[in-house]
Amino acid sequence: MSEEVSVAVGVRIRPFNDRERGLNAQLCVDMDGPMTILQNPPELAEESGKGKEPKKFTFDASFWSHDGFETDAKGYSHAVSGSKYADQQLVFDTFGKKILDNAWEGYHCCLFAYGQTGAGKSYSMVGYGVNKGIVPISCEEIFRRIEANTDKGLSYEVMVSMVEIYNEQVQDLLVAPKDRPKKGLDIRENQQLGIYIAGVCRRAVDSYVSIEAAVDEGTTNRTVGSTLMNATSSRAHTVLTIEFKQVSEAAGQQGQKLSLINLVDLAGSEKAGQTGASGDRLKEGCAINKSLSALGNVIEKLADKATGKAKPGAVVPYRDSKLTRLLQNALGGSSKTVMICAISPASSNYEETLSTLRYADRAKRIKNAATINENPQDKLIRQLREENEKLRNMVSDGSPGKNENNGISSEEMSLKQQEISALEQALMEMQKSFAEKLADAQKQASEQKTVKKKDKTETNMPHIANLNEDQLLTAKLRFGFKEGTTKVGRGTQEDDSPAPEVALQVPGILQEHAIIENTGGSCTVLAKGEAAATTFINGVAVQDGIAAPMSHGDRVAFGQCIFVFIEPSKGKVADLINSGQVSYAIARKELQGEVSGPSEEDLKASRELAEELERKAREAEEAKANAKAEAEELMRRREDEFKAQMEAKQKLWEEELQQRQAAEQNEQAAAEAQARSHAEELARMEKEFEERQRKAELAAQQRIQDLEKKAQKAAAEEEGHRQHELAMQRLEEQLMTVMPLVKEANLIISELQRPHKLETKMHCELTAEGKSGAVNVAAAVTLNGVKLFEWSPETLENRVYVLRDLLQRAEEEGLEAVKDLPDEEDPLWDPIEVERLIGVSQVLLEGVLLQVENKVDARILSSEGQAVGTLKVEIIPIAKDGSLGIPDEEVVDEPEELLGTQMKILVHVPQASSLPEVLANDVRAEFNYFIDEKPHQLPTVPGHDCDPKFNYKHTFVQDPVTSRFLEYLQSKLVFRVYGKDSAAAAAAEELQRAKAEQKAAAVAAAAQQSLKQKAETPAQPMPAEPEAPAADATAPPPPTLPGTIGEPDLGLRDVAAAEGDAPSSPDGTPAKQLPSQASIRRMAEEATTTEPEIIQSQKKSKMCAIL
Description:
The chain is an alpha+beta fold. Helix content is 41%, strand content 24%. It contains 25 helices and 42 strands. Strands 2, 6, 9, 12, 13, 16, 17, 18 and 19 form a nine-stranded mixed beta sheet that branches. It has a six-stranded antiparallel beta sheet with strand order 22-21-31-30-27-28. A five-stranded mixed beta sheet has the order 24-23-25-26-29. A hairpin with a 2-residue loop joins strand 33 (772-783) and strand 34 (786-791). Helix 10 packs antiparallel against helix 12 (410-431), helix 17 runs antiparallel to helix 18 (668-751) and helix 22 (982-1016) crosses helix 24. The longest helix has 84 residues, at 668-751. It starts with a strand and ends with a helix.
């Protein structure tokens, strides 16, 4: 009986990483119970105009692991008091424990981690150090529960397998890379077994130690495979399957419960939907992108099906990829499934985070019909035998004739035979007892111990350990250097010479690449010729033919493989990595010489500049506060002085008045006059005081304004410096991504013997405000020094993966298999960009604001910042009467007086001059004006002209003038000048001609091969027919068809043969005639021409008559 259950979904957020902290990343995610809240970044809210409304998603669990934790002495991270931090144990208790409980009940279970690269999937699944993830905790818990069992009638059998899906190939990680089939393992389906991987190694384990050893072996093999075969861990899916069987015996009867626990670590989700790569024509054609795209389609279809949105009879596309085929039972099948989505907290990853949350929101709607698996094994074995016997009968009874009659082709027959072989292998495995399987596993474990013992011996001598972008795969691959010499080179040799001790199968590695000399523990690297250019120590290429010494901790690179050199007497590789002295990022950064980061002097100067700017800003703020306090104090003092003066005068006046009143009561008129005089004096003083006070206030306000401007300027300089630092960090990060890919692409292109070459380019965009915009990094594809087109970083990454596929195919099938590819499959083909941006020219609009003409020869700057010509531009304001220029009587004192009026502006572009010769073809230009949606186009000047004359005039009318328009006039008018690259156009024509010639040569070769085969094939005897009457000797010969082998073609050689002068061999027999050019030409025409069936049948009957 089945139980309908939904896919359980949880989301986990990690802390900021070093890169995000360096870029001052903003937190854009919050969590409230099971709800995950995604805040819109401010810049996105402004662009979309939708404000800052957050997006809310509710899941089964939301794990906050961003902050609120502390690390104990052992290195374990746990929550501090009062925080909502979710540690590793909490994640396991929420989902991992549920998985094991379901397994104990007999359900199939699946847990898979999804999210962009670096979001923390592997941390949740595997963990690092003492912070163990779900996989190791689950393995421990399985054997802890088994040991706690007290029922003697109940026993447990545990098997483990580990596979990796990379580039649509399933590789067994419990098998060494050299012993695996080249095309990987097949995924098959059987009515009894369900979906299974044919030939996968299933290893019996009886303790946590043994299962840990198996996982460690798989991880090591994964490292060897990714290093030697040039794979990338972020593009591979890892599946660990634990087969958990409970065997119970009661009253002589045996019962079984079987549970398959699939723990899946998916590849980085951004690889399925990179914004920049979504338009790449080869993106979906690359097998490496198929699996996640197919998984997204499957989840979408299942979610629509569960919500009733799917159309009746809609098919879920499980068969579109190996990954979805393997997860078919977990998604929409009979399994209980859990999905953990890892997300980044940084606003810079907003789009990827939103995509992941929407993905998870769809997945939680999927319904599975979970069933307990209690099928008896005896019945299953019997059914498998019966099915195998049916297949055998079908194959043994099928002769070629019968196959045709039964509609079974040879391909179908081959597939049936493969299915028989896979079923026989499955039967043999099922018939083995667990003790036998355990004995086999222990034998393999002893072999692994021998290998580990050898590895341990190598680690006791000077050796190198690999560095990988995935921390889990770092230091898993080690090569020891014995006393004497050790060779480094390709794993596959062209001749029968022995393979080198350090075998690396990656681009840039020669057959005999380098020699390591160990003399008394001191090691040196010697590389010659081309190998020296791709061998580095601490980012510096070794000198040709000169032995370079290696020291403990040195980063050593052979081609694309990066290692760290270890002297055991001075420490271990783990100490170097844990201390931060050595890492993959540091080594990769060293390899990019020109972007190896600022020097100590640069860092010191940058720090001093930042401190100087901060000091200036602080001083400006302090000066502003002091000036304000001084002004207030001055006003208070002056007010107190005035009050004191007034009080003193008032008192004096009152005393004088009293004296005068007592002495001269009869002098009343004089007293009144004196009083009026005093009143006038008082009014004058008050007026004087008010004037002084007004002037003091104005002076104080002016000083405060000046100080505010100074403070704003200092703050702007500080912010500009900070933005510049961030821009440089982003640029360095882009270069750190693009340059290794360009280097690898060039190495692969060289291996494939293609004439192309890639170069790293930087383009700076200029804004209308006159500021330097974003600096974009691209990869330019050149042919014989001529740039054909450019790739964005996302497209470059995708093409490199396609090139890797081609290289692997070339190694397996030979270079001929990857030559003359059609355009749609060729990663080095794209439509050639003939029209190029020559450069950008800027012209100030501020003259219009001041109502004066601006006539200028503006420099045209290329995207690399070089002057590539001039553009003559005239911007002239128009008077009210329509004349050019503003008369004095219409000139305003302040720009604000123009608000509400009508303004006319003439933009005149007479010509450009001194343009580059190679780009000065069909020159045109365009510019954007104010709020116009489409750019304004200058007329194209046809033909080749380095000084093209545009004679462009256009009058712009702004009615009424707004404050926004006045702000626009404080910016610049930006002209973009374009021209066609004559060298690129010639290269395009040459490539098309070469393609046409290759196609014609291929057709001719096919025709010649066909003729040769016909000439060498003996004529088949025809069935006996009744004798015909004897032919008259004078009768004309039967008609022959042009190009048939019955009548030689009458070329020069054939005419000679017809006249009896055919050449003879030494024994006197006539020599075999070679096909003539005419016959080859006719065969080529026939090979490329489709004829009606009637004509073909007529030719066939005539041919039979001739024979």
